[in-house]
Here is the input.
Amino acid sequence: MEQYPGFHYPNIDQKARIAANQEHVNRRVLSEYIKVIGVPNQEKLGTRDLVQKFLKEIVRYNTVKDNSPLTWPTSTGSNGDCSSFRVKMSDQFWTYFTSDGRKKLLEYNRKERANVKVIRDQTISLSDLENLSLYLRRKIKQHYQTNNSSPPDVSVKNGYVTIGNYNNGNTKRYRATELAVLLGWDYRDWQGTAIKELLSNTERKNMMMSYMCEREREGTLTWGSLSLDLFKPIESNHSNSPSSNDTPEAVNSVSGGDDVSIDKEVSRKRTGTENEDPNPAKLHKHE
Here is the structure.
């Protein structure tokens, strides 16, 4: 019997469709969970009592209308006098934490000289996108050090890399995957998901367009097409900039502080599919 497309077999990549749907489900589930690490526990409290200490003493959450702000507590281990746990949170708690609760946490850490951190769980694709931005910043820095060149400012947040000079406002923001393609470097030391698999649908389409066009067009994503001349004016603003005969091949990174912070956690309660920017706020990395 003759096989008909659409009836006997799908007209689309069904495996990719299933994978995208599973990623969407995973993001929705994990967006409701946080991991709290480094909670002082000299009293050797149980997990549930430790959760109450976190709520009452550390973030000072006293919302009467929310009877179950943190549920399903699970211990994730201890390190000396500090313990960690994972919990499912309510929407009211997260709304509070992203405003007042985060400030209370920082105040507690300063007062008690503690290092309590809140980490929002992520899927592998989201965490790898964050790690890729940090990896590119480090790789850019190493390249500039090798060429003895003065770097522009480089910062990372939410899977994006911003390059430029913050003093004069001349900056350019790239998604980490986009920057990886534009730089076109050797990524054999990248320890994560293949960068091609992290590309958004739009980036895949733009990259395909660049292969089909005889010459580069606006909107296409071409391997190794980033013009390093773009950063020459930025370099000239540094007191230790190289001479005009030196042509750096990449941009160095200057750390603007901790690679990660609690701000990464200020993300939407529900994230979308892989083609949508999850855009969570900055989180602490897992230790």
